[in-house]
Amino acid sequence: MLTIVLGLGSALGYALHDFLMVKVVRAAAVWTALTWSMGVGVAVLLPLALILDGPPSGPAEWRAVAFATASGVCEAAGLGCLLRGLVVGDLSVVTPLASLAGGFVAVVMIARGETLPALALLGLPLAVAGGLMASIEKTPKEELFGQDESAAGPARRTRARAGAGWGLLSSALFAVTVLLFVAARDLSPVALAAYGRVGTMVVLVPIALLFAGLRLPGPLAKRAGVAGLFDAAAFVALAAAISIGPVAIASVLVSQGGTMAALLGLVFLRERLSRVQLAGVALTCVAVGLLATG
Predict the structure, then answer these.
(1) Which of 10, 146, 194, 252 sits at 20 to 30 Å (Cα–Cα) from 4?
(2) 192-234 tens-digit pLDDT
(3) pTM metric for this prediction
(4) CA-to-CA distance for 91 and 114, rounded, in angstroms?
(5) CA 210 to chain centre
(6) What is the pLDDT of residues 20-34, one digit of tens each?
(7) φ, ψ for residue 272 (rounded to 5)?
């Protein structure tokens, strides 16, 4: 049960991060905004990890640090693929495909011998399907990236296929991120999240300096900072859920960010969910009940 609470808590943290960052990335460069939000995570998590656990010691912990740092690099690569997919493809195609990462991890872990109760095995595919359906957005890509008059007919279909490829690649990279987390379980959840964020910053800072710089207006910086706190909490919850296990359940629940985002839009932005999204939310609720019972 604790795995379910932590997994859903992590999904909620990521959804709140994205919810706050929408306003920031619409007014500033994406890479600059992400560097600020995730930099706050490093500034909070790394000192906390050193205070609680001290510096790494012994071959096992240093190996885990390497895996955790690699997970952060992999996550940054997955984020880059996701953004590229949103540029060349449709939001309604790319985002749901990116949400499949938890399903990929679950398949890998079950293939590696992780055993689950029958009800949990039934709930996992329902949760993946529910998250995918809830992630489907009707908002056109042009609202985020500008109108593209050339995207019509065969050209638009080509863009959709390209966006799908980037979405699947980002999903695979996010899945590898979680699997690297699994390999780093010799660290505490706070330390694991801290070194993971260090790896992410190793990639983000050079990209931001190269393409956009690090300057961010005060109000946007504050908003990005608050979003970074939610991201840091979500990262720790993810590490804790994986350390408790089963990993297959934790990974699928953490991937419910689309479901959480849809609910946030419904409650705080008065958005009207499509029938597919409502069905996805309902399916996710059934799946969570099955996982909890199992």
Answers:
(1) 194
(2) 999 999 999 999 999 999 988 889 898 999 999 999 999 899 9
(3) 0.81
(4) 34
(5) 24
(6) 887 888 788 888 988
(7) -100, 120
Integer CA distances (angstroms), 16 to 11, 60, 182, 265, 275, in order: 9, 34, 24, 10, 23
In this structure, what token pair is assigned to residue 57?
């010691």
- Say if residues 236 and 230 touch (Cβ distance below 8 Å): no
**What is the three-state SS of the chain?**
CHHHHHHHHHHHHHHHHHHHHHHHHCCCCHHHHHHHHHHHHHHHHHHHHHHHHCCCCHHHHHHHHHHHHHHHHHHHHHHHHHHHHHHHCCHHHHHHHHCCHHHHHHHHHHHCCCCCCHHHHHHHHHHHHHHHHHCCCCCCCHHHHCCCCCCCHHHHHHHHHHHHHHHHHHHHHHHHHHHHHHHCCCCCHHHHHHHHHHHHHHHHHHHHHHHCCCCCCHHHHHHHHHHHHHHHHHHHHHHHHHHHCCHHHHHHHHCCHHHHHHHHHHHHCCCCCCHHHHHHHHHHHHHHHHHHHC
State which residues of the chain have pLDDT below 70: 86-93, 135, 137-162, 258, 269-271, 292-294
Q: Cα dist. 233→63, 160, 172 in Å?
A: 24, 34, 23
CA neighbours closer than 13 Å in the CB half-sphere of residue 196 = 32
Q: Are 170 and 93 in contact (CB under 8 A)?
A: no
What residues contact 237, with CB distance under 8 A and at least 6 apart?
A: 6, 7, 9, 10, 13, 189
Q: Tell me the average pLDDT of the chain.
A: 81
Q: From the CA atom positions of the chain, what is the Rg in Å?
A: 19
Q: Are 33 and 21 in contact (CB under 8 A)?
A: yes
Report the percent of the chain where pLDDT is more than 70.
Answer: 83
Structure tokens at 90: 């449709």
